[in-house]
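To fix ideas, we now present one chain and its tokenised fold:
***
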Amino acid sequence: MDIGARLQQFEELINEAKSMPLSSSVLVNRDEVLEIVGAARKELPEEIKQARWVVKDREQLLAKARKDGEQIVQRAGIERARLLGQQEIVRAAKEEAERLLAEAREQSRQLRLEAEDYVDAKLAQFEIALEKTRTQLEKSIGQVQRGRDKLRGVSPAQEEFGSTDDEEEQQEESLLFDGEDVR
């Protein structure tokens, strides 16, 4: 289940909660809320693991590209040395070796660019997924704050303009439930 589904569970839990008599506040089951938060927390690191895999894939691709490039350069060097040893084709050997070397460098460059493009695309996808998750979390946090404010009895006007000391004392007294501070 993804974070969006967990947030949906929060909304359903709040929407289905029993209303307090003579109040706009609702009662929610603490264990249910904590269970949803715990499950969401467990799911979040999976996306982080995916990012680590993307980085690891990038490193493996770059290492392979370097290794392939080095092998091509090594083969070109060997071929060049062999061709140089033959007096009658010294000039042709130099040209061929240079061509192979340039080709090896180009192949190495192409492999590196492809690996970087692949990793960039994966990171962009991951960034989008994280941005959606962040947006959903911010929305949920806002909903939770509004719910908590409702439970505290804070009105929208008090939120906007602040409350007086007397109002703050009244709010603190109203937060006491069965002798416990519910904050």
Q: What stands out?
A: The helical segments are 3-16, 30-84, 90-152, 156-161, 165-174. Confidence is low (pLDDT under 50) at residues 176-183. The radius of gyration is 32 Å.
